[in-house]
Amino acid sequence: MSEKEQAFIQIRKISKHFGDVIAVNKVDLDIKKGELFSILGASGSGKTTLLRMMAGLEMPTEGKIFIDGIDMTNVPPYKRPVNIMFQNYALFPHMTVFDNIAYGLKKEGQTKDLIEEKVKRMLSLVKLEGYDGRKPNQLSGGQSQRVALARSLIKEPKVLLLDEPLAALDKKLRQSTQFELMDIQDELGVTFVIVTHDQEEAMTLSDRIAVMEEGEFVQIGTPNSIYEHPNSKFVADFIGNINMFDAKVLGTNVQELTLDCKALGGEIKIQNPDQTIHSSEFSVALRPEKVIIEKQQPSDEDHYYVKGVVEDFGYFGNLSIFRVRTTSGDIIQVSKQNRMRIEDSITWEDEVYLSWVRESLILLDN
Amino acid sequence: MSGLLINVDNSFRERLWKNLIIAIPYFWLLLFFLAPFLIVLKISLADPIIAQPPFTPLFQDSVDGSISIYTTFDNYLFLFQDSLYLVTYLSSVKLAFISTVLALLIGYPIAYGIARSPQPTRNILLLLVVIPFWISFLLRVYAWMGILKTKGLLNGLLLWTGIIDQPLELLYTDTAVYIGMIYSYLPFMILPLYANLEKLDIRLLEAASDLGAKRWEVFKDVTLPLSIPGIIAGCCLMFIPAIGEYVIPTLLGGADTLMIGRVLFDEFFLNRDWPVASAVAIVLVLLLVLPIVYFQKRQNQELLSES
């Protein structure tokens, strides 16, 4: 590996035990310079512990952390080129916005003029000009979030760690802030490592995502690869909605796998499966938006289809979600974009045909 | 229509309850604080006489049958003419102040340690802080006499270990009073400090550390300023009773330990000069009201800035 290609953050076999509990279990991770990397997991998955170890707030039980090629494993937090933005922000309540943001520079012993200039620039970056005299309790949730961001960026860290950065904001604000975060990251070129339990947040923000469960990574990849090519039932289920059905292997040849899946109409063939074949029991998964729902019988030969009856129906404006009971008795969830204002609407108790292209099927090892 | 009437009735009843509940502490203070205070104030404005009770009544029957009110400020003037009282007030303030500062220096690390210890240990440590209250205050002060006297436990220990070769003169000195005061009032310092430090958000300390603050800087920049309400509460809870303390200076202090509580006692029981004793008490109350008002103001500011 050449000097340039070497990962910016290298985590090697890192573990953290709290008594008998193993929060993080021998994790390896490489994060590139300037990357926007998310660690996604449910609460208790060990993601925050991992982040805290990168910040130096938690000492690993074993393993090493390198940042920019330097061993940081035993370096105290105040000497690391890393800053963290805490969940709920942890702004100093007794200091003004200015003093909060300036804190890191003051500890560096910078001159007053330089501090003032840099804080001003930060305030304009996070669009909070004129708020410098306020106290944290006079700020809204969104403003507090921006102050916290400015405070953690002012020392120009090599890596910014963000612990659930958007969790405390309401939905509308979350969306706009997401894009602002991406803009700021783009502008400063800082490596962002985000910890979140919100899969939507991770999908939109990140260059790459690591899905974490019980202290280990289950899958690491781009949002697209994790969504479209999940490597396990856990990841498929955790990211987005999905239909999953049991299937039995009928036969394999070099490039094709034949399965029997009762819920999806019997015999199905999967070309070039992502997974190598270990067992005869599989799950076949299908994302709701990959299913076409219509009242007429589909004619295209490339499509598989099953027949069913609409049992439940939800209208969300931009899309509608159907739960269809197939003739085999299984439930398939379907989402449909409402492209036309006036449509031949499908509703409760309608007989429908569900179809999909072969490539939409995801094969998951049991 | 009838529904509306019931509503009105309910809200009226609710208001009545609310007022009743609020009235209870007011009534309590009126009965046990304001009324006695006014009685003492009345006595402080009377002349001492040899009678039962030993002071002139406020309302006096004149020869012509009408009732006149008799008051005098002689007792207050007397307090300012005789330098003993002023010196004693100042000495009381000094003793209480130094004890409070020392108790703060001792109590803060203890409170901090308790607040930072794991939950089960924390409860045991808090219990240990409170346990002395199970024994009478008077007995505990007597116990200190046993420890501090010339042939007491402390001198015995120090002589035995060879640290000193002459017993220290401790009992009946100001030092003994300081020891007694700090010992007796330390829990009142520790508990409010603990209550404050226990609430402190650890993430604030982590944030400071993450932004480049070393351990002592984290303490100076974050922990200490955020614990000021606890410091004020603890200091008030200690300073106010300490300034009027009677038992400790009487039992542990020397003849030259001047504290206002002793002067008050002497005026009242030895000189039987109730009016002067009352005047001493009134001035003491005024002296104490100042820090309380300051404390209240701080607290209100705190509440305002939090809302």
H and E string of chain A: EEEHEEEHHHEHEHEEHHEEEEEEEEEE
CATH architecture of the largest domain in chain A, by name, is 3-Layer(aba) Sandwich
Roughly how many Å apart are the termini of chain B? 40 Å
Under CATH at level 1, the class of the largest domain in chain A stands as Alpha Beta
Oligomeric form of this entry? heterodimer
Order of helices and strands of chain B: HEEHHHHHHHHHHHH
Widest β-sheet, arrangement of strands of chain A? 6-7-8-3-9-10
Mind telling me which CATH architecture of the domain at 82-272 in chain B this is? Orthogonal Bundle
- List the chains of the largest interface with their residue counts: A-B, 25 and 19 residues
Strand arrangement in the largest pleated sheet of chain B:
1-2
Largest sheet of chain A, in brief, is: 6 strands, mixed
Report on this model:
The complex is a heterodimer of chains A (366) and B (307). Chain A has 366 residues and is α+β, with helices and mostly antiparallel strands. Chain A folds into two domains: 9-236, 3-Layer(aba) Sandwich (Rossmann fold), CATH 3.40.50.300; 241-365, Beta Barrel (OB fold (Dihydrolipoamide Acetyltransferase, E2P)), CATH 2.40.50.140. Chain A contains eight helices and 20 strands. In chain A, the strands form four sheets. In chain A, strands 6-7-8-3-9-10 form a six-stranded mixed beta sheet, with helices on both faces. In chain A, helix 2 (97-108) crosses helix 3, helix 2 runs parallel beside helix 4 (141-153) and helix 3 packs across helix 4. Chain A is globular. Chain B is an all-alpha fold. Chain B has a domain at 82-272: Orthogonal Bundle (MetI-like fold), CATH 1.10.3720. Helix content of chain B is 75%, strand content 2%. A two-stranded antiparallel ribbon of chain B has the order 1-2. In chain B, helix 7 (174-199) packs antiparallel against helix 10, helix 8 runs antiparallel to helix 9 and helix 10 (228-243) packs antiparallel against helix 13. The longest helix of chain B is centred in the N-terminal third of the chain and has 43 residues, at 2-44. Chain B is globular and about 85 Å long. Chain B starts with a helix and ends with a helix. The relative contact order of chain B is 0.12.
